[in-house]
Design brief:
Blueprint lengths: L2 H24 L1 H18 L5 E6 L5 E9 L5 H12 L8 E2 L10 H10 L18 H11 L5 E8 L6 H20 L8 E5 L18 E9 L14
Parallel strand pairs: 2-3, 4-5
Antiparallel strand pairs: 1-2, 4-6
Helix pairs in contact: 1-6, 2-3, 4-5
Length: 239
Amino acid sequence: MNPRRASIVAAGAALSLALSFVSTRVVGPDFVSGLERSAVQVRDEAGGQAVTLAFRDRYGWLTRHPILSGGQGLDDATRTRVAAAVSDVPGIGGISWAGQDTAVAKLRCQDDVEGILATRSIRFTEASAQIDPGSVRLLDEVAQALRPCVGSIIAVTGHTDAGGIPEANVALSRARAEAVRWALIGRGIPADGLRATGVGAKQPIEGLDPHDPANRRIEFSVIASAPVKPTPIDTPGPG
């Protein structure tokens, strides 16, 4: 990559990330705090004062899918009532109970996406995060394949080859992942379930030279499954 162009790309990506960070810091915490206040109120009204509500996921991200824990001394009916009350708070996307099996799972939708991308790649214009028009149909296919996993956390990771300046590569890979994230949002995939990150050239494809252009890629990982409504399965009894 041309050093001057790389510097421009890095600066642009940094500005975009800074604006995103400011937006999250100013708007996100206030929104989630409001949800938490409402959730605590309905939890107490439902008799679930012993239940703890966590509005950060295991990765530290603010979330509108709170994790409930505690309340082991409550009966099944009360736990179900608490879960339903919290889930019905406007703005909350669903709940889960701590202790459920939330291990990383490779779901079928990830297999489908990997199959789609096995012989094709999401392409960008040279040294930029602008998605090539020729990849529009491919993104349509990816979005369609990811729909069965809506409610999960989907990681979108950008990679580059080893050419150019490492810092610029990381910024460019992150900007490209963000571009794909927004493209998926525009195709109906919920924004709060998508996480974009870029690792530059740190994770080349096994067996390839780090400078091989094939390392320039976007990867998807379905890293957790979140229930969208409380059911008897979602609200296990004490124990």
